[in-house]
Amino acid sequence: MPLPALPTRADLTGWVVTVVASTVAALGFDLLALPAAWVSGPMLATAALALCGVRVVMPQQLRQPVLLLLGIAMGAAVTPAVVAELPRWPWTLLGVILTLPLVMTALMGYYRKLSGADRITAFMASVPGSLGFVLALAIEVKADVRQVALVHAIRLFLLVLILPVVVTMGGAMATVAPAAARLSHDPGQIAVLIGASLALGGVLHLCRMPSSLMVGGMIGSAVLHGTGLSHATLPQPVLSGCLLVLGAMIGTRFAGTPPRQLLQMLPTAVGGTLIAAVLATGLAALVGWLTGFGFGQMVMAYAPGGLEAMVFVAMALGYDPAFVGGHHLFRVLFTAFALPLVVRVMFPELRTGKKTARTEDPPGG
């Protein structure tokens, strides 16, 4: 097995630039008391640098350890009070299922009309979140992968920016997570917590669970904290660093994107994001009113963005990450199961090997 290639000087320079810019932006956003400062600040900084042609690098090797640690932090929020709320979840999970066709139907029609995308490309671009799975399926069904990826990236970018503002302006800002006083930073307990979460994440990875390490960290931590076997939590500087890495990774998705292409897609993507956000927020408010869950927490649980980003924005805002993460994970699993079946029904021509009419992907798309 060949050894991994060592980073080049350009990679190291890009990494230093990314870390410095992300840290300065996060501290600046935090100083201004902006919502989710340690995610949105680095995201904006790295995206701006990338679009200006500056090389920005955030090693992909950091992604899984960061997701594991953030999953552990999510699970640490589980308390007996949270467990007592579980019987109310089926109704809010049903709302997640209802949100999917509502949002996707509206977005598919919108993308078809405004951008002239072919049916399969518009369909794949309309799926909320699940980017890795969506891109894999988009390649298989011959959709315009570059267009799908860009729409998803812009949508995630905008949601991370606007959702904290929406829930804050709506007076729905959460308080500091409950039960924080009972948690400790004992190194021994933290080591046990990480070990158990890593083991469970490895098992879930073998079972092909999406975001397996994060889910393993969340479940392992939730069980240990919910049963009172652990009171450990990660120090705040560690959590802030993890959020910084996540925000920077979102921003670096725009690396290599020609500004002209971004400007061409931006109006359509912004409009689609607003449509998805309004529909999801409206249904979240309705289901929250019927079930008694708070507006801000429901908005974050129904937000049409990626699992990791939406959960960690919710965490940064002080909402119950177990609730938000559980609903987004349910949507990811439901999407992974249902989407291939829906594609077969809606696009029977794909089964006969016919291609939908569209412009071919550019090389590397």
UniProtKB/TrEMBL annotation:
- Quote the Pfam families the UniProt record gives: AbrB
Q: Name one GO cellular component term.
A: membrane
Question: Keyword set for this entry?
Answer: Membrane, Transmembrane, Transmembrane helix
**Membrane-spanning regions, if any?**
12-29, 35-54, 66-83, 89-111, 156-181, 187-206, 238-256, 268-289, 295-317, 329-347
One GO biological process term is: regulation of gene expression
Matches recorded under PANTHER family:
REGULATOR ABRB-RELATED
Question: What is this protein's record name?
Answer: Ammonia monooxygenase
